[in-house]
Amino acid sequence: QPKILFLDEPTVGLDPQTRRRLWEIIRDLNRQGMTILLTTHYMEEVEFLCDRYGAGKPGRIGIMDSGKLIELGTFEQLRHQHGEGLLIKQLSERFEYKFFPTLELASGYLESLPDKTGVMVRPSNLEDIFVELTGRQLD
Description:
Rossmann fold, alpha+beta, three-stranded antiparallel beta sheet
């Protein structure tokens, strides 16, 4: 059995059930001690596969921009570094995003606003961090 498996966009074009079954297979292989190197544009896939499902430790996530590695860490390390709470404010036809160290601080800030119209707070996710680091949306 190989010790490392390279997967390049393995779930592109798959229906949701097949995609989730492949995720389970990947997780099982990793639990058996296989190292998985996966490239994908699906941030929720990265969060699911790299967050706490490694063989005893979380998987590391590398964020690349224009072919260069710009960030490396576990999902929790990336969230801790960039902010675990996110305030989103709708401004006519665009959104403004503000990261906070914790969700509680983001919620406290929201509560202090006199006008909460078009404003919400939620936990940050990997896509938020990607957009913050690269300055653009996912394609």
